[in-house]
Design brief:
By secondary structure, this protein is of the alpha+beta class. It is about 20% helix and about 40% strand. Helix 5 packs across helix 6 and helix 7 runs antiparallel to helix 8.
Length: about 650
């Protein structure tokens, strides 16, 4: 039996609106709900309370003295000296959320550099603080988006890529860690030029980004400002790093193979050699030891991380890969002595934890996160499988990777309803990390969760990733159609009860699938999804346009513009005949609010029911806990109505 509604829900405010408009109820100061049941708060709290977890402090590296690890939690920075030690808050900056904090020598004092935005607008300013005051100095220019902040080995210099609001112009900036010293603008252009590494001596800077044709890796002399282009490539170059003597440059790229591999460039001779290649998996990321003697390399094998460590001088394997993957890994950082790796790890059945990984033995020591000690465990491990799609991969039918979460109650006698979750990107990947949300849907609601990695997903080589580019976008939606065929072949899944959901690009996939397959779907969910590519390109933040044109196509080309009209859900809204739930952030700089609201109006004009959750204090995703609970609750209520009632 449901408990009485709390006062905050019974006091929802009905805003004035034309008679033809939907009832919009206000929840608190920033949330607005349309056609959403009042049970959403309870549903959201049910999800939040499912599988109780411990506070997951995220490891960020080591303190200045190397005696303790740095952790971030809810926008604050902490230090912890041992696995059983207390968390000591390092900075007291009221009203400021710290992101990507790194130790720096701030005018000779031990301090930190960090970024912070407001309510998800992604205009993340760069700040310096010496840790001795209740304030921080903003050093980035004006209102701008600032990313890829790196710190020199001596910690007295930083570099970052900066895009001024509303201009689409990017700058590469190097700057002293004294706030009163002027920044050095090293490059300007319409595409981001990302700093990767300072040379050990501090005179040079490695930077990479798009060039006139393809991509480039450059070295910039910080004394003269002169740029030397070291390499041109057809594909992206990233994660570049100097060797200890500064002679060699290591970087990852798929320019020389179908998969992302590790290469080494000789600055003296120009020789380029592969260091780790022909593995058959993409490299996820690298980490370099403080003395630059060794490098950890994380591979992506079917979504799970495989780690190896190499000697950067002898190009020899030091350790790995372990027989068993530690899980899905992020944020690798070497300990000061180079003998351990700090990292975050999630496994299919265990939430994110931060701790130390012994790469020689493959053992992981968790310091934070995971389940509470008294949590009753319910096993849920996804099947990592694949299904046959509509076209060929050489001489064989192409197969699409798929994660399948089946409820224990599913059987031929009682087939389970299904929800398909499409990931964003499209250059992203559904990986088998723990999700309380999916776990709740499967174990508490008896609904099967399918997470396909349709064409365009990364992690499976560049050929697969590029299968959906520009005018081949519709082929990704056909992959969803063949997934519906696969569901029909599963005796324990109910093909007559299927909902599709997704966020960002996954929201487009959801909406486009509703256009094509409304007769095979019960409903759909779009979280900040693209509904019309032409207006999206016109209204997304200018700093993103050049990048999105490389993926989606140049809307100024008549052929591309015609294809946009053909494939965009907004132009085909009359073909959607089943209910849809939209979730949107009012500060979203990537997929503006209008993308959802135009689509809502178009679907409603056809007499189809639409529900809507709008948070005016969120951006591209919901970060605030109460907003997230309402968003989760709205999705749970929608799935219950579409698939179970």
């Amino acid at each position: 039996m449901r408990r009485p509604l709390p006062l905050i829900l019974t006091c929802l405010v009905l805003l004035s609106a034309p008679a033809s408009a939907q009832e919009r109820r206000q929840f608190g100061d920033n949330l607005y709900l349309e056609n959403v049941p009042q049970s959403v708060l309870y549903d959201g709290r049910e999800v939040a309370g499912h599988m109780q977890t411990q506070n997951s402090y995220s490891v960020r590296g080591w303190t200045h003295d190397g005696d303790a690890m740095l952790f971030s939690y809810r926008g604050d920075l902490y230090r912890r000296a041992s696995v059983n030690g207390d968390y000591a808050k390092l900075l007291d900056l009221p009203g400021v959320s710290l992101s990507n904090a790194k130790p720096a020598s701030v005018c000779g004092r031990e301090g930190y550099v960090f970024t912070s935005d407001r309510d998800g607008d992604e205009y993340s300013a760069v700040y310096l603080t010496d840790g001795r005051s209740f304030d921080a100095d903003k050093i980035s220019p004006g209102k701008s988006r600032n990313v890829s902040v790196i710190v020199s080995d001596t910690r007295d210099r930083i570099a970052y890529a900066s895009a001024e609001a509303g201009t689409g112009v990017w700058q590469l900036i190097a700057q002293s860690t004294c706030a009163d010293e002027a920044p050095q603008v090293l490059a300007r252009g319409n595409a981001p030029f990302y700093p990767d590494d300072f040379s050990p001596a501090g005179r040079h800077l490695l930077a990479e980004g798009p060039a006139d044709e393809g991509f480039k890796l450059s070295e910039i002399d910080l004394e003269t400002g002169e740029e030397t282009i070291l390499l041109h490539a057809d594909e992206d170059i990233k994660d570049s790093a100097y060797s200890a003597d500064g002679r060699y440059i290591f970087f990852t790229s798929n320019a020389y193979s179908d998969f992302i591999e590790l290469m080494r460039y000789d600055r003296e001779t120009g020789e380029l050699i592969p260091v780790l290649s022909d593995v058959g998996f993409d490299i996820d990321g690298i980490a370099v030891a403080p003395d630059r003697s060794r490098m950890a390399v994380s591979y992506n094998r079917d979504g799970l991380s495989i780690i190896v460590v190499i000697d950067m001088n002898r190009l020899a394997l030091i350790a790995g890969p372990a027989e068993r993957s530690p899980g899905v890994v992020s944020g690798m950082r070497f300990s000061p002595d180079g003998e351990m790796l700090a990292m975050r790890v999630s496994q299919p059945e265990v939430p994110w934890r931060s701790g130390l990984y012994d790469y020689r033995t493959g053992a992981f020591e968790p310091w934070t996160g995971g389940f509470k000690p008294n949590q009753k465990m319910t096993s849920l491990i996804p099947d990592l499988t694949s299904y046959q799609t509509f076209d060929m991969d050489g001489d064989a039918p192409r197969r699409i990777p798929l994660l399948v979460y089946r409820p224990s109650t599913a059987s031929a006698e009682k087939p389970a309803p299904v929800v398909i979750f499409a990931h964003g990107g499209p250059e992203s990947q559904s990986r088998p990390s723990f999700s309380r949300f999916y776990h709740y849907i499967v174990t508490q609601m008896g609904i099967a969760v399918l997470r396909p990695n349709i064409r365009g997903s990364d992690g499976y080589g560049k050929t697969f990733e590029q299968l959906d580019e520009t005018t081949r976008r519709a082929d990704a939606i056909r992959d969803i159609g063949t997934l519906l065929d696969w569901v029909e072949e599963q005796s324990d899944l109910d093909a007559s009860r299927v909902v599709i959901a997704g966020g960002s690009y996954g929201g487009f996939v959801s909406l486009a699938s509703l256009v094509e397959y409304s007769d095979r779907l019960k409903g759909g969910i779009s979280r900040f999804g693209v509904s019309d590519f032409a207006s999206f390109m016109e209204n997304t933040e200018p700093y993103r346009v050049d990048n999105r044109r490389r993926e989606y196509g140049d809307e100024r080309d008549p052929e591309v513009a015609a294809f946009f009209r053909k494939v965009s859900p907004m132009q085909n809204a009359d073909r959607i005949t089943v209910p849809v739930l939209f979730i949107q952030g009012g500060n979203d700089p990537r997929v503006p609010q209008q993308q959802s609201e135009d689509m809502i109006a178009a679907i409603r004009a056809n007499g189809v029911r639409v529900s809507y959750v709008l948070a005016t204090d969120e951006g591209h995703g919901f970060d605030k806990s109460e907003n997230s609970r309402i968003s989760d609750g709205a999705q749970i209520a929608f799935l219950r109505e579409m698939l179970l009632d």
